[in-house]
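Page 37, continued from 36.
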């Protein structure tokens, strides 16, 4: 992803790359002469970056695209957002944010007579499961139905299982080949069903989304932002009356 982000920055124009830092390098380097930081690393490196920023009260905006983050990471981002704008999304594709909004509408419109299943398919090298995007979709559905996510999420089905509970959100995970990322949400009733899916054909969409987020983030005040904020701002600009 690092290489793709650099490619996207050069294609976009108007950017100068101040440093390229891997998870094995000195985290401090990226805070020198930078106007914004784009992070696609690993949870351990993201934690180190956030702790350094927090310890130094850094005012540099940070875009976090790392997946597999824990509540601890989000708490660190919440703290650091008091000093600088922080953007975090489990999926950097703007279209996925629209996809998530549609899923919320469907979950809101359909009652729990419709069972929900989420399919998460990625390449064999992906280390976290379910993906951050799949978890985001699940939480969106739970929120739309006024449910606690942890109470309705089902990640394990093996052997003799209990009858499906009302409101349950099932997760299926596939890790194989070179699948960039496919997510499908199914609402299945007794007599009909609705399925909606997003299929990423290239990782370049995530790099370009991160660059778009970086350009937007440098104009924001301190706070914690997501792709929903970016999409909402873009939509409002498109629909705002002119003149």
């Amino acid at each position: 992803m690092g290489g793709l982000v650099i490619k996207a920055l050069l294609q976009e124009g108007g950017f100068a790359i101040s440093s390229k830092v891997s998870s094995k390098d000195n985290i401090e380097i990226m805070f020198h002469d930078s106007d914004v930081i784009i992070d696609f690393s690993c949870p351990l490196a993201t934690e180190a970056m956030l702790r350094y920023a927090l310890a130094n009260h850094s005012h540099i905006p940070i875009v976090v695209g790392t997946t597999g983050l824990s509540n601890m990471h989000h708490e660190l981002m919440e703290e650091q957002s008091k000093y600088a704008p922080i953007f975090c999304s489990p999926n950097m594709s703007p279209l996925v944010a629209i996809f998530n909004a549609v899923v919320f509408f469907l979950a809101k419109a359909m009652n729990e007579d419709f069972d929900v299943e989420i399919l998460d398919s990625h390449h064999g090298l992906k280390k976290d499961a379910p993906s951050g995007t799949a978890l985001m979709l699940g939480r969106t559905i739970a929120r739309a139905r006024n449910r606690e996510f942890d109470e309705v999420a089902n990640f394990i089905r093996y052997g003799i299982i209990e009858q499906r509970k009302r409101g349950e959100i099932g997760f299926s995970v596939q890790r194989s080949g070179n699948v960039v990322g496919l997510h499908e949400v199914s609402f299945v009733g007794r007599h009909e069903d609705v399925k909606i899916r997003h299929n990423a054909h290239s990782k370049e969409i995530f790099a370009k989304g991160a660059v778009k987020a970086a350009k937007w983030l440098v104009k924001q005040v301190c706070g914690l932002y997501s792709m929903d904020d970016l999409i909402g701002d873009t939509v409002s600009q498109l629909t705002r009356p002119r003149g």
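The mean pLDDT is 89. Flag for discussion at group meeting. The domain at 2-88+203-239 is CATH 3.40.50.720 (Rossmann fold).
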